[in-house]
Design brief:
elongated; 13% strand; Rossmann fold; five-stranded parallel beta sheet; 22 strands; six-stranded parallel beta sheet; Xul5P/Fru6P_PKetolase_ThDP_BS; 25 helices; 785 residues; thiamine pyrophosphate
Length: 785
């Protein structure tokens, strides 16, 4: 069925002209916003910044989705993959009225249009890409590749929502985007919304052709249909024909989406649909200048950013630019006051149906808090420190199981993990939940179902991208990954943190659930997998983010992990990084002490110290489960062999407490810091990650040079657990040697003990070569008085 309302299409074309006009104005103009007088050099911005090339296509799609929303009362949000089409999205949310409601100074008149223009890519204004200040956006366009994973995350458990995900042909070349096409294998039409991918091909990146832009329709159809999509092509450079074809195609795609959902919701899930996808081919920089200085512009890479340069100083360029602007006939689009004329304003949806005002694009407005069980119900009964071994993450798995159960009616929690849920000891969730897959399920599968909410796919990008989209549309979740491979998606963590940093400055952006990342299978216990699996770099990545959003927790045992997880799952607008291994480990604190420890962020462990009522000779500090083990074992050894050496043990669970309080809200005040670490005594610090991180966070503390940090130094191989810490200089015996060397008061007693420690390390090397396991006194060590 061909879309028949030609009168509406003609009005939509004029609306598109209005969006294009406002887009060009944002890039170029600071005065004379509606061309009430001939253009003069002083009307042009001194610096021309922005991206025109993708913008006409983005606006074309927006205008047509507005029509779809109006005619079907459809619930649609718009994610712009070509992020530097920012002026196009700003133009459209301004035309629909959302922008002026949120930013009242940008009024719907000539004065407001001038302010809209002047703020774009100027000091104190808005960036050139689709970003946090853009109403309707949940997608940061600064880094390409994430639009589809965010879109599917938004659609999960949102049965009435359609997410229009515009994929740029440059973005389509990225690995995260390429992997995200397979998200259809996890979208269940019975309980989820839908994603409508619109692959916008205009042929070029900044200066070269794109892969898919040069590919044939046949090859693109094979690519997308191979991923399960029903592919529809719309292409051309005749505006009215493209309007006709796009309207017809959108109606067809909408009907297919609703038919798949109706079938599944009436008869139950039976098969994976062939979800529609649109391939839109239009010229890059469409409706812009055909050529400048005899060089082709429209349809080429030269239209990517600013098609006409030197407008202020080159009269011919000024003439070309003015003709371009006037070709949109602003006098027909805006009335005498500069407001959009009524017949065009009527084309925008109303209220929350406007894509800029849709509550799903401001997820905090519809956020329902999780119903969390008491985390103490999963605590381990620790009668005496360092005497029992338990898999700490298994206790968290039990808690996650019950979170699924308690929130089953809300359908607002999912676990995302790259095929590692059981491996990371979180498998108790499968008592109540399944792995999600809408592919055929066979008899030998283990807890696989189309209605599962444990999302396993071997792509860190996809897992984290799904979770980010899920969170930003008002839900909750956890991303669990092997530690080393969280670096695959580290850039996503950076981009999400930047999003949060900006969103908390905007009162209209309501808080969303925090991005919670659990890193397990850590560097110190991937001794069997080898060097490739040994890398704690995400800690450094998150340390670089502002204290307003970044949090890093290193719980040493199960009870601390439970306390930290409870806090993180209740929090908003943070990126919470939790690092703990999955292997059996000694347990240190009972639940009451764990709660107190995690509340403080760090504490002195008196039971492991021997400095009662005196100033210690050395402080032995630790952050992380394996550093804690080695530090406590070192303190025990020193107590047995040189009780004259007074040792204070400080354990850090919240890494940010080490920062000066001026640099991070969790930072300890100086008096409290000195109370634990003293003012001038040496500190031997065993750290889970790279040693430089501790030097960074204690910079500015009293006598910071006294901190001697041992951590991961890129020394790894396939070996034993204890040999990993030996290789990196963080074993209990190396910590003992460091402490004895630093403690000047007892230096006369330490030489034979240092020699003994070195002898043990030598014996260790011989023993593991002969026996393929660690020394019994290391392997079986527990705390004894």
């Amino acid at each position: 069925m061909v879309y028949a309302d030609q009168g509406r299409l003609a009005l939509m074309h004029k609306y598109w002209n209005a969006a294009n006009y406002l887009t060009v104005g944002q890039i170029y103009l600071q005065h004379n916003p509606l061309l009430k007088e001939p253009l003069q050099p002083e009307h042009i911005k001194p610096r021309l910044l922005g991206h025109w090339g993708t913008s006409p296509g983005l606006s074309l799609i927006y205008v047509h989705l507005n029509r779809l929303i109006q005619e079907y009362d459809a619930n649609i949000i718009y994610l712009a993959g070509p992020g530097h089409g920012g002026p196009a999205l700003l133009a459209n949310v301004y035309l629909e009225g959302t922008y002026s409601e949120i930013y009242p100074k940008i009024t719907p008149d000539a004065v407001g249009i001038q302010r809209l223009f002047r703020q774009f890519s100027t000091p104190g204004g808005v960036p050139s890409h689709v970003s946090v200040p853009t109403p309707g956006s949940i997608h940061e366009g600064g880094e390409l590749g994430y639009v589809l994973s965010h879109a599917f995350g938004a659609a999960f458990d949102n049965p009435d929502l359609i997410v229009a995900a515009v994929v740029g042909d440059g973005e389509a070349e990225t690995a995260p985007l390429e992997g995200a096409w397979k998200s259809t294998q996890f979208l269940n039409p019975q309980r989820d919304g839908a994603v409508l991918p619109i692959l916008h091909l205009n042929g070029y990146k900044i200066s070269g052709p794109t892969v898919l832009g040069r590919s044939s329709d046949e090859s693109i159809e094979k690519l997308l249909s191979g991923h399960g999509y029903d592919v529809h092509f719309v292409e051309g450079d005749d505006p009215m024909q493209v309007h006709q074809d796009l309207a017809t195609t959108l109606d067809l795609c909408y009907a297919k989406i609703r038919s798949y959902q109706e079938e599944a919701r009436t008869h139950g899930f039976t098969r994976q649909p062939e979800w529609p996808a649109i391939v839109l081919r239009t010229p890059k920089g469409w409706t812009g200048p055909k050529e400048v200085d005899g060089i082709p512009i429209e349809g080429t890479f030269r239209s990517h950013q600013v098609p006409v340069a030197s407008v202020r100083s080159n009269p011919e360029h000024m003439r070309i630019f003015e003709n371009w602007l006037r070709s949109y006939h602003p006098e027909e689009l805006f009335d005498a006051e500069g407001s959009l004329v009524p017949e065009l304003a009527a084309l925008a949806p109303k209220g929350d149906r406007r894509m800029g005002a849709n509550p799903h694009a401001n997820g905090g407005t519809i956020l329902t808090e999780l119903d969390l069980p008491a985390f103490t119900d999963y605590a381990i009964d620790v009668q005496k420190p360092a005497t029992e071994l338990h898999e700490s993450t298994r206790q968290l798995g039990k808690m996650l199981r019950d979170i699924f159960t308690r929130n089953a009616a809300e359908h607002n929690f999912r676990l995302f993990c790259p095929d590692e849920t059981n491996s990371n000891r979180l498998g108790n969730v499968f008592e109540v939940e399944n792995r999600c897959s809408v592919e055929p399920v066979i008899s030998i599968d283990d807890h696989v179902s189309p209605d599962g909410r444990v999302m396993e796919v071997l792509s860190e990008h996809l897992c984290q991208g799904w979770l980010e989209g899920y969170l930003l549309t008002g839900r909750h979740g956890l991303f669990a990954s092997y530690e080393a491979f969280a670096m695959v998606s580290a850039s996503m963590s950076i981009q999400h943190a930047k999003w949060l940093e900006e969103s908390i400055k905007l009162p209209w952006r309501k808080p969303v659930a925090s991005l919670n990342i659990l890193l397990t299978s850590t560097c110190w216990r991937n001794d069997h997998n080898g060097f490739s699996h040994q890398g704690p770099g995400l800690i450094d990545t998150m340390l670089s983010k502002k204290g307003t959003v970044s949090r890093i927790y290193l719980p040493p045992d199960a009870n601390c992990l439970l306390s930290v997880a409870d806090h993180c799952l209740r929090s908003h607008d943070y990126v919470n990084l939790i690092v703990i291994d999955k292997q059996p480990q000694l347990q240190w604190l009972n639940k009451e002490d764990a709660i107190d420890h995690c509340t403080r962020g760090l504490s002195t462990w008196q039971w492991a110290s021997n400095d009662e009522f005196v100033e210690p000779d050395v402080v032995m500090a630790c952050a992380g489960d394996i550093p804690t083990l080695e530090t406590i074992a070192a303190a025990w050894w020193l107590r047995k062999h040189i009780p004259e050496l007074k040792v204070r043990v400080v354990n850090v669970v919240d890494l940010m407490t080490l920062y000066p309080s001026l640099l991070h809200p969790h930072g300890l005040d100086e008096a409290t810091f000195i109370n634990h670490f003293t003012h001038d005594k040496p500190v031997v610090f065993a750290f889970h990650g790279y040693p430089r991180a501790i030097h960074e966070v204690v910079h500015g503390r009293p006598n910071a040079e006294r901190f001697h940090v041992r951590g991961f130094n890129e020394e790894g191989t396939t070996t034993t657990p204890f040999d990993m810490v030996v290789l990196n200089g963080m074993s209990r015996y190396q910590l003992c040697i460091e402490a004895m060397r630093r403690a000047t008061r007892v230096r006369g007693l330490t030489a034979p003990l240092i020699a003994e420690c070195n002898d043990i390390l030598t014996r260790h090397k011989s023993y593991i070569q002969a026996n393929l396991e660690d020394l019994p006194e290391v392997r079986d060590w527990t705390w004894t008085n």
